[in-house]
């Protein structure tokens, strides 16, 4: 039997769902790659899964290449992208004493 670890059925449709690797979360987010396999047949979904996984792998490779490229272009000493976009660094939670 083929590996069907990344097959998910939602309603009657089959999808490929794979979590993004942590090293590309900055580029692709911390969610998942989700692609419809365009079928309601499990056997057809198993047949189409390798194509979807190939697309996932190519997106990860492009994201890693983009991160390397931008890491080489960003001069040291510049503020992080989050601060340049106006976001603030999150504050630690306040600690209240119960007395």
> For the largest beta sheet, what order do the strands appear in spatially?
1-2-3
Treating each run of at least 4 consecutive H or I residues as one helix, how many helices?
A: 3
Secondary-structure element string: EEHEHH
Number of strands: 3
| Helix vs. strand class | alpha+beta
Using only C-alpha atoms, the radius of gyration works out to 20 Å
Shape: flat
Main pleated sheet: 3 strands, antiparallel
Helix amount, in percent?
40-55%
Strand content: 15-25%
- Stretches where pLDDT is under 50 for at least 5 consecutive residues are none
pLDDT averaged residue by residue: 83
Distance between the termini: 61 Å
Keywords:
40% helix; three-stranded antiparallel beta sheet; 99 residues; alpha+beta
In short:
With 99 residues, the protein is α+β, with helices and mostly antiparallel strands. Helices cover 40% and strands 16% of the residues.
Mind explaining what this structure looks like?
By secondary structure, the protein is an alpha+beta fold. It has a domain at 7-72. It has 3 helices and 3 strands; from the N terminus they run ββαβαα. The protein has helices at 25-28, 42-73, 81-84; strands at 7-10, 13-19, 32-36. Strands 1-2-3 form a 3-stranded antiparallel β-sheet, covered by helices on one side. Strand 1 and strand 2 form a beta hairpin. The mean pLDDT is 83.
Could you outline the blueprint of secondary structure elements for this entry?
Layout lengths: L6 E4 L2 E7 L5 H4 L3 E5 L5 H32 L7 H4 L15
Antiparallel strand pairs: 1-2, 2-3
